[in-house]
Amino acid sequence: MMEAKIEKKLLYEKWWNKYPRLKDVLLKTGLFLKYRTLKVCKLPNKIFLPSSRILYINPTENRGKALLLTNGVTQQRLANFWQKAVNELHPTFVVDIGVNYGECLFSTTYDEMTKVYGIEANHQLLPFLEQSRIEHPNREQIQIVYAFATDQEEGTHSFFVDKNWSGTSSGTRIVEHDMVEEYQVPSITINQLLADQLTSEDTLLFKIDVEGFEAYVLNGMNKVIQKANRVVGFIEFDSGFMKRAGTDMEAFFSRVKEHFYVYAYIQENHIQDISLVTYEELAAWWETDEIHTDLLLSTFPLPDLLKQLRYN
After folding, report:
1. Where in this chain does the record put each Methyltransferase FkbM domain (predicted)?
2. Whole-angstrom distance, CA of residue 188 vs CA of residue 181
């Protein structure tokens, strides 16, 4: 049984989504303190990441503002995992599903033979992604795909763009405020994208951050998971969002464990192997009906990589 204190979803996150204008005020205050201006036209539209890679953002949109405040790193543990996984595993295929501005995808440099894909359903972010791609050393290896990743290979899917905070745009409406617009976006599966390219000798690194549709994305990459030599991924795990998208959490968790070793971030730098844990036990540890954390999924054990991530 886990002894470490479990990280719970903070109350301010719910306020953050419920009161978008409060978010706007707080971000403007932070930007004024950092840049000494309230004029958007004087804010930079690109960020030099810690890796020296360049990230273009929209300084008029709140997630873009947050990236300016944090120098392009809003998810530190994802940034740590991604760079260490690229350096340690040398993946031959990389897929970032739910790219947003690309702070994960563009945060590092890849091997010359690595094929890199970023999938994003928010058309408003595409110009910024293209600018960042053009200035990246692996620009010829990176392809941005405008699509909604799911388990359906044909047709379109509704996508709800949160104009206040692009990070909570999703295939279902997950925020309560009125700054949301619905669009129809082409559907795609990871099987459709990679199954004909990938071989039994390849290593696939992926990230899934799609605000509740993670189960559908994984269903749509089953062939790729079975075909590749090694598969490692990082997914945002928010049971509230996933339930809203129609996911049976116990069935999802059982299915994931059939294909992967599963590790959960219990605290910022404490990763727990939960491969033998049931969803009911996991919910009991969180002492709440809603679990919000990040998971690492791997088709093979990750002792060396986990040590680099301060696993204990």
Report:
1. 96-253
2. 21
C-alpha closest to that of 179 among 166, 156, 199, 163 = 163
pTM over 0.90: yes
Q: Is residue 208 part of a domain?
A: yes
Check if the beta carbon of residue 203 is closer than 8 Å to that of residue 91.
yes
Residue type, 298: S
Q: pLDDT digits over 20-60, tens only?
A: 677 778 888 889 888 998 888 899 999 999 999 999 999 99
Among residues 310, 209, 210, the alpha carbon closest in space to that of 267 is found at 310
| Nearest of 137, 95, 142 to residue 119 by alpha carbon | 95
Whether 14 shows a pLDDT value over 70: the answer reads no
In a domain, 259, yes or no: yes
The phi and psi torsions of 161 (rounded to 5 degrees) equal -85, 120
Domain limits at 152? 11-308
Would 148 be classed as within a structural domain?
yes
Q: How many domains does the chain have?
A: 1
Distance (Å) of CA 215 to CA 58, 226, 253? 30, 16, 9
